């Protein structure tokens, strides 16, 4: 596989830091540029993140001495240095939308961790195992933007990674999921925090995360939608209702899921477990570097999955499931778990970039 020069826009924040660490030993991607806000621009990366490095591993040696560029002032310069960029900036949504389009119009593809473009109709929001075909909308987006190479692709919200991958194999097998109730228990790193920076989260649970319930209910419908007429048309169902909590966990989003099937369309427990075990997506077919070999791991133990024990499965890119059992009001209930800053954020975006490279969308014309 050829190698690609990569930039990280918003490289000093928690997700940006994760991108930088994931580039360190990547077989296809070479970190070439890091950009952030004007207050970090001109500093070395080591200076820019001093006192706020949130990763468990040290700053990669290659990144330490890189001079941080200005994410907004240096768009053309960065576009000339790289083959594509990852974007994880902390700005207002309208500002993010404008910035990402500037990079795309500078003929620099953007793989975004941000939510700003998730509902733009011709921007694919992709979990590579679930809806890889949605990248086929990119030519229509390029036509709208007036670009040859530039485009924007986004990953979905971190919370849906803990349950949408578990529902998808059932739906693809013809089992008609009618209604879903999900309660998510989300780690503090999803807010870009550590316990040192957010001590009030120790021994605490907050029953509200702004905008998260709406994302959790709606984003799976775009993932399950279809490309039609140069845009992505979201699925009409299943109906999802969600409640989202911030909990005292460093990494790992857990979901308690309740599922109701249409009459006559209900699988057995063993059929569900078999579908989970055997499920593979385009990421596995292509053997992408960041793709887990086993996408879904089911635990028979009644006290699994657990965030501390299971979030790092397959480099944090696998989905864990457990406690599948009948429910008195729905048909079944179960628990899902995903690593929110790996599978749910930077790692998921890296996997999406690998998919785009493997399918030829990052190649220069």
The helix count comes to 14
Query: Helical proportion?
Result: 25-40%
Radius of gyration: 20 Å
Main sheet strand line-up = 8-11-7-12-15-14-13
Tell me what portion of residues adopts beta-strand conformation.
15-25%
Name the helix and strand elements from N-terminus to C-terminus, one letter apiece.
Answer: EHEHHEHEHEHHEHEEHEEEEHHEHHEEH
Termini separation comes to 17 Å
Number of DSSP E strands: 15
The class by helix and strand makeup works out as alpha/beta
How is the biggest beta sheet arranged? 7 strands, mixed
Description:
The longest helix has 13 residues, at 93-105. Helix content is 29%, strand content 22%. The strands form three sheets. Strands 8-11-7-12-15-14-13 form a seven-stranded mixed β-sheet, with helices on one face. Strands 3-2-1-4-5-6 form a six-stranded parallel β-sheet, with helices on both faces. The protein has helices spanning 14-23, 45-48, 61-64, 75-81, 93-105, 128-131, 138-145, 164-172, 212-223, 269-278, 282-285, 307-310, 313-316, 346-358; strands at residues 4-9, 29-36, 69-70, 84-87, 110-112, 152-154, 177-186, 205-206, 226-228, 231-233, 239-247, 253-261, 296-299, 319-326, 332-338. Strand 4, helix 5 (93-105) and strand 5 (110-112) form a beta-alpha-beta unit. The chain has 365 residues and is an alpha/beta fold.
